[in-house]
Amino acid sequence: MKLGFSPAEELFRAECADWLQAQMAGPFKDIKGITTLTAKAERRKEWEQHLGENGWSCIGWPSQWGGRDATLAQQVIFAEEYARAGVPGRVNHIGIELAGPTILTFGSEEQKQRFLPGIAAGKTIFCQGFSEPNAGSDLASVRTKGRLENGEWVVNGQKIWTSLAHISDWIFVITRTEEGSKGPKGLTFLMMPIDQPGIDVRGITQINGDAEFNETFFTDARCPADSLIGRIGDGWKIAMGLLAFERGVSTLGQQMSFRNELDALITAARANGTAHDPLIRQRIAKAEIGLRLMRYGALRMLSNTDHSAIDGAALTYKIQWATWRRALGELAMDVLGQAGELAEGDAYEWSTLPNLFLFSRADTIYGGTNQIQRNLIAERGLGLPREPRGDL
Amino acid sequence: MKLGFSPAEELFRAECADWLQAQMAGPFKDIKGITTLTAKAERRKEWEQHLGENGWSCIGWPSQWGGRDATLAQQVIFAEEYARAGVPGRVNHIGIELAGPTILTFGSEEQKQRFLPGIAAGKTIFCQGFSEPNAGSDLASVRTKGRLENGEWVVNGQKIWTSLAHISDWIFVITRTEEGSKGPKGLTFLMMPIDQPGIDVRGITQINGDAEFNETFFTDARCPADSLIGRIGDGWKIAMGLLAFERGVSTLGQQMSFRNELDALITAARANGTAHDPLIRQRIAKAEIGLRLMRYGALRMLSNTDHSAIDGAALTYKIQWATWRRALGELAMDVLGQAGELAEGDAYEWSTLPNLFLFSRADTIYGGTNQIQRNLIAERGLGLPREPRGDL
Amino acid sequence: MEFAFTDEQRMIAETVRGFFAENATSERTRKAMAGDGLDRALWNAFASDLGLTGIAVPEDHGGAGLGMIELALVAEAAGAQVAALPLLGHVMVGQAIAKGGSEEQKAEWLPRLAAGDMISTTTWAARASAADGRLSGTFSFVPHGAVADLLLVYGGNDAWLVDLKGKGVAITPHVTLDQTRPLATVVLTDAPAEALEDGDAAIPAALAAGWICLAAEALGGAQAALDRTVAYARERVQFGRPIGSFQAYKHRLADMMIEIEQARSAVYWAACAVDENSDETAIALHAAKSFAADTYFMCAGNMIQLQGGIGFTWEHDAHLFFKRARSIQTLLGNGTYHREAVATMILGGAA
Amino acid sequence: MEFAFTDEQRMIAETVRGFFAENATSERTRKAMAGDGLDRALWNAFASDLGLTGIAVPEDHGGAGLGMIELALVAEAAGAQVAALPLLGHVMVGQAIAKGGSEEQKAEWLPRLAAGDMISTTTWAARASAADGRLSGTFSFVPHGAVADLLLVYGGNDAWLVDLKGKGVAITPHVTLDQTRPLATVVLTDAPAEALEDGDAAIPAALAAGWICLAAEALGGAQAALDRTVAYARERVQFGRPIGSFQAYKHRLADMMIEIEQARSAVYWAACAVDENSDETAIALHAAKSFAADTYFMCAGNMIQLQGGIGFTWEHDAHLFFKRARSIQTLLGNGTYHREAVATMILGGAA
Asked: Which of A344, B99, D51, D84 yields a CA-CA distance of 20 to 30 A from D255?
């Protein structure tokens, strides 16, 4: 067990920090510090490409596919420095963290060649089509249909909560390809180009006034027959494998953006004097401790590679960060007081902390609600009986 | 809606206070301030009789049965003054609050004559035999068997958590009287004298070192055929009706003993300076508010007689006080610090506040755990689907 | 001692519930949100059809002469629909004048307030002093400040009325979290100000009415959040079952009910205590405001959580409740403030 | 950067788990509780069979020369059985001498500590000063004080060793909440006291070891509370179903696991930080002690609650966990203290 980094790793840290800070001070100054996923989408696509051109897009990937074969420690370092430099979140995070690894793991050689270089170059933006209006928590009840017709997949149905679909090039979709199948059987995983007449993306305005999420409608949407990952009927298996990638190194980058939020809160508390309030101090200390424990929890997950994805720390990670961030949002508003209730200007638009307060209400819902997470922990982590399905 | 008391009621308050304080200053000085239910049992039986002799035992009962026909307001006042005077809890609380009202409501004329005067006189102490080792939360699965034999009931089985059985004269017992019946059917409610060879009471030591609860074993225990309340098979209905009595005026007396506990905590906090700690102050304020809200919740329940026992306030009352008291116990220990971890002397015996901390862990369990309470609230109060029974 | 509503109170409750359910619809509230945060038609109907703008105004000044209990019933019903109504300032100013105004002031202002002819609001001033009947200062976070006609400024032992349509007044409206009660910044520069005769009587009366109004709104909102979530829980099917059949879900709803029932006791205890001028008035008010506000926030948060993704959309009404709940928490003293006030009563001042 | 146990660490963990599971049985612990709170046979076996009394003592003084991680593994296993073992004082005194003793002091004391020849304990003194090598004062709440041979008194920049079997010592044992680590009051009257050479080095080393010991005990206890409750949940049938099939029950257990996993990160982060002399050492220690203690209390409380009536009996082991958890919360600074220390690091001092 060892927490420190080697001198070589510290050098690598300096290299990352130098490059990232130079970009944020120079050519990409205009996007520094953005905390939403929707602002300045075009410039951020340029940033994705800039990362790709400089070999910083997917450093953990094999160099063959545009990565750097970076070690775990190096990936940890890059993620930390990325957020420390105030670089905004990756608009292609689905591509680099979910679609890419899925293709790497389950895709054919031809698919790797077709997709991975584009993702690594920041030119192929992916989004994810899993949830449906009647398949939210209950993902296995998807109804969007896919059928093979004249050497093409033809897809009909509706997805929801397709984050960033409006700026994406591709969507990976779970479809029901076996007529009459139920539950996790008969599902197939397809990659579809978004820019086609059969796909209609409509934004969903959220409670913070922003619209990161979308409804995506499929009406005879098409993609070539070889657009499936794995085999026909493997959709569930691949979707589950893909969810495991969500607990990878990217969690550390996410944590650094939490760090920035907590720092903003600390700055606000110092500025308005609430930093002297003993109750606020206890809560800030709890938040600080919670964030540190997330970091070390993630390092434990990542270091213990012999433990599988059902290791306790991994199972509990989602609810932990979601709950932490929701509490941080509430704390932020208590720190700000009524000043936190004023929008930034004349529109319903919010600065970092009130936006955190509002947006974090979704953290405990998307990607598996806190209730679903507790089921998973109890059932997979503790071996307790599964919740029975009903027959409605 | 009116909260104040009339001048006549205030006069009654003075009368109650004068009499109770005189007793606690005079003949019953030695039991003043006792907070456990087990200490000085013999003296407290004498106190029950003294109450009875002076007509203060069951003031809400009809005068015909030893009561005073007291109004609701008078009962509220008496309960408050009782605890305010530092009078210890009623060792016959099961008799006066549960058995008595049950007999009044469901008993025959003969049974009323047989039992009520004795209860009102403090001479007939009752305890309750409901739970069994395998019927704790799930009361409908009782197995203790009763059968009629030669004009007598013969009972075999085991009850548990029979509070104060070791000092009681009578026990009322739910028995399964229909061979092979399951669940709430086939149960009968019997009143049995405890002092007989067929009944064996064994104390259960609790985590606070005290032993209020017992296991009670029935081996061919007997009582006359007319010892049943209601009819054969009515046991469940009567048990449920009886549980509703738990939410009666006695809750106000209970609250006044909570008041005494909170006051002890406030005294301790002032004495050791933690009353200046802003975090402790918030928690004491919450406790104070919670206690007041319990009082007004109880007054709402009692005043709204047209609403039945499934009125919201009534359904939520148990979990509310149990959770409040458990939190008070934790707060008490935080106020006391390590000093709260020292027993009173050389035995494992505790003063009011540490005892509160320990004993209150049972409050959220007995009489329906917090989990069962939430089921009841959701199912009866909100009309949500019932938890399905299994078939094990 | 009778802690139950009278028949008349039950009737009022039923009437206002029906009124707000029918008129303060989501559609109309959203229209107000997109505008200046005031549903004028609702206010006018509230004033003229129901005559309830005069609820707590004495009868001899054109009011209904009812008390805080009735006010609570009204605010509870308005809160249940998150109505875009300037009730808070209205009842605070009305009580301030009724309890602290001179006979002339009462005669001048109360009938107009009772008739609903004007929108009122209030602001607290740490250090405001009126020289020669003129008041200056910057007052932030004034509820419905941009649409109000009359402002009550209170602080220390003094309370003043300022005509917001008059001279020396500059108002900056804000887009605020809760768009059904937007805040504004009011800057007064030698604005004419009329001192109420008895500030010491006016201020506690205004605060009592304000706290009760907010606490009752919170109670109504919390109950509505529970009711709507229960309805959803019965209908929404996941995993082949109504989600309301999942025990963890049921228990969350039960927890909401547990808090709401306490909040209900708190609100009516406080209202009753004010009406009866009870010794417990102060503690009851602090208890009601803090407990009901926290209850509402908890219930509105659960309303979003338990409805899943849809509860997080702008289109769904959950966020109206959530934002109102948050804004009630901060208005007129947050929970920490009120609990510290309670602590001071029972423990003495902090170190 | 490798936040995973080495093979050697895994082996130690397995060994100590087996040792405590076999030897620190409920029966033996209860015997110790009824006596002086010390399972001497367990201590002797721990010292001689396992040689683990020397765990964090340097090898050149007869110890095993291992670090805080290994200490945490041992304390975790001992905590999982609520063993009646004087580990806390032992590791604190050992570290104080190892880091702050002169060469002579190390040579004198460490081999005896490593061999387990003596029971040690510690106490903090707000204002203790030794004149002419003698110490006076009343020290309350000394863990295992009535059975200890050696007392470390620390305060300010100084730390002294006092022979509790020597002159000027009066000890009053107490019956205490947690009978597996009873507290005693120690009164010193001009008792001979030996100052450690470097108090400034000794004190933080002692505290670090103490906090890690307590946090690791808490982690082990919390995990055991969860494991035992899960086992019960699988077996106990109510309403015709294993109670572990009820969702609300499952979620309570899940909540325990969520906290425990964080506590686990905290404990090993802190141990690692001390061993590596990291910049994060202080915050890691405060985090570990406060978080693990709170987690343990939450889990032990649930252990009683979720086992129903039986969990509330003296006969059942749940109360051993519950009482140990509570006592860990107060030992060496409560949660508020440790969080305030963290707040001071990131926010500066309080007003």
From this structure: D84
